[in-house]
Amino acid sequence: MAEKKIVIVGGGFAGINAAKKLGRAQDCSVTIIDRRNHHLFQPLLYQVAMAGLDPSDIASPIRSMLNRYDNISTLLGTVESVDVDCQVLQTEVGVIPYDYLIVACGATHDYFGRDEWEDFAPGLKTIPQATEIRRRVLMAFESAERTNDLDEQKRFMTFVLVGGGPTGVELAGAIAEMARNTLKRDFKTIDASHAKVILVQSGDRILKQFPDPLSKYSKEALESLGVEVRLGDRVTDINGEGVRVGEQFVHARTVIWAAGVKANPIGKTLGAETDRAGRVVVQPDLSIDGHPEVFVIGDLAAAKDKAGNPLPGLAPVAIQQGHYVGKLIRAEVAGKITPTSRRPFHYLDKGQVATIGRRRAVMQSGRMRLKGTIAWLGWLLIHILYLNGFRNRFFVFLSWAWSYVTFARGARLIVAKAWKNSGTE
Amino acid sequence: MAEKKIVIVGGGFAGINAAKKLGRAQDCSVTIIDRRNHHLFQPLLYQVAMAGLDPSDIASPIRSMLNRYDNISTLLGTVESVDVDCQVLQTEVGVIPYDYLIVACGATHDYFGRDEWEDFAPGLKTIPQATEIRRRVLMAFESAERTNDLDEQKRFMTFVLVGGGPTGVELAGAIAEMARNTLKRDFKTIDASHAKVILVQSGDRILKQFPDPLSKYSKEALESLGVEVRLGDRVTDINGEGVRVGEQFVHARTVIWAAGVKANPIGKTLGAETDRAGRVVVQPDLSIDGHPEVFVIGDLAAAKDKAGNPLPGLAPVAIQQGHYVGKLIRAEVAGKITPTSRRPFHYLDKGQVATIGRRRAVMQSGRMRLKGTIAWLGWLLIHILYLNGFRNRFFVFLSWAWSYVTFARGARLIVAKAWKNSGTE
């Protein structure tokens, strides 16, 4: 049989796991394309933003993750569009044909049509965004220390998080803890522990994918750290001075966006149906209608579980989808199955976990519901185990152990954006 | 006695060590001003550029380094000028008066009047410069992998280092080793080990502050790694295509500047005599002529040893000067000495060390001259010991041990400059 050319777009959880399943597969030549050179362990990105971890602790070059497979090549580049009829990709570096295509290029923030808010309220999806948030949070305390104007000091020491999902909750908890523990000793003029952290959630509870008692516990845990949780409140404006929440204007120099998500626009070029967030509607085998050779997986896919409910944009979903499609193509190229004999994808929900701070977390798996120290230890264990590469696991574990004992955050650097001598810093 | 106000400009080796000596000194109120929030262990900055270490491994917030001293405050800000007659500093955040002033704001690159070269050949003094160099070196291999044009491939895989001092030598050795060991396995189209690394030195030997046999050994060690060392050659032009070395044009997409140095322009506002590189000529007690209350130390100072030879711009000189001035002011404020009874500064030369690569280094102390593995172990030990903070020492030691065993470089991330969704990456 002739060799089949399989192209994977995106080196996130979905793409990298599909690639691994196709590693050394007979008659399969795989190319994985990403516009970044690294795979990112997104669930810990907020720790980079909060100066607890370094970017390289949670990122690995895609090339080295896959270098043991001779049949996989890695290409750094941007995919512009897909022509499913001609079976080719338009990329920055030329046209690439495929026999099978796996589109797994994820999602980004959505400001609900108010893109101008991004300047004032960065989101957290990439390493540059994490370091930008780190810079803003640390600079806010520095600026508060420098000013004599008490109102201005208050504005610098007010932090607003928009969105009550895991990212918003993790960031709110981490800023509150950093202010109370790490930074308290460092400043002479201000008392960093007086920082005000506000979490705004439009719904009636935070972490709404968790059972109600765990949401309630999370809210109380945040409040015990001094975070003000505002439920049922909607952000109607953001500018350089602060945030309008409902009728009230909250003066705050630092605002972080952890709310909406929209799918990568490449999804639309596939010609398949997309949902409101731009996600591509997929068949039970994760291929698109009329094109059994084109798969969409990860955050870009609008897939459903057995009961017909949409699957959430979470790492475990992306990993399982990657494994499923990788194995499926492998079997099909080997002639073991045909497009008509494919079995549908089933998501095995192993549960979920979210952290609020030191020894404060929630965990749910099947009927098991945990909170507090035990859930927090579960969170630590799961994240260490799922991190890619032994080096990363080892160093992240050590960093955490260190921070736990000393309350310090190792990566508290404010780094200039410009590298030139002459550049403004 | 009334409290004396001591202002330190710059949190490098000189400033931070002066501050430490003034910590808890009676009747001394100290303010340390830096435009960055972190102290940087500059001797290991090339390892950040070469993806071996993370920025936070070699940098610590100045605030936390000094937070145990109640009489020291830290201010993030830029000093614009000094008025030595009125005893005040002009800063971004207002006017600051002083009784004693320690100016220790170091040096930056000098392109010998050709500032336009900086775009094509970044220097290595700050973290953003280190990550920019990392990005360029890693991107060069990625771009070589993407192109089918063999000449273009060659240009992407040619790296020119300008300057044969420790930084140029360390970078040349590190790029050659990275290409041969770390990257070789990662690429399918190109053979990374074919990368060409050229070190251009205008003098007749590299590492000219070392005894001649050690310079010779270093050159051979670099050559054994495949580096082409060009002695007695001068760079006459740099542009986006490469470097003109003497009469020959070398096509190279990546050029790094490790040659000239010029002092911070603040030195000139002191009104004291400056040398050709803009360094401030100081008295034997490191104060400036006519102003016993103003000291200039570190790379910004043109100080001399007993024999009248200029002291080099090295970390040990800065550290000893910082200690000397800190102790001097402490004693003077306590009334133990007067400006007329000050003893002159003496630099105790403990020797020097430079590394070329794995088990390749040179070391000289007094009459002792070492090279190879033993010098390399000496280099490791010294750099671990002098690193600030136990956490940094521990993590750097582990990173090195890891890299030594696996030949891997943990921080091989190409990170975009722009953080915005909409930004170009």
TrEMBL record, chains A, B:
Keyword Membrane assigned: yes
TM helices/strands, residue ranges: 368-388, 394-415
GO molecular function: NADH dehydrogenase (quinone) (non-electrogenic) activity
Catalytic activity entry: a quinone + NADH + H(+) = a quinol + NAD(+)
Domain FAD/NAD(P)-binding: 4-322
Signal peptide region: none
Keywords, sorted A to Z: FAD, Flavoprotein, Membrane, NAD, Oxidoreductase, Transmembrane, Transmembrane helix
UniProt-listed Gene3D superfamilies: 3.50.50.100
EC numbers on record: 1.6.5.9
InterPro entries found in the cross-reference section: FAD/NAD-bd_sf, FAD/NAD-binding_dom, NDH-2
Keyword Ligase set for record: no
Domain of life: Bacteria
Family: Belongs to the NADH dehydrogenase family.
The protein's name in its UniProt record: NADH:ubiquinone reductase (non-electrogenic)
Taxonomic lineage: Bacteria, Pseudomonadati, Planctomycetota, Planctomycetia, Pirellulales
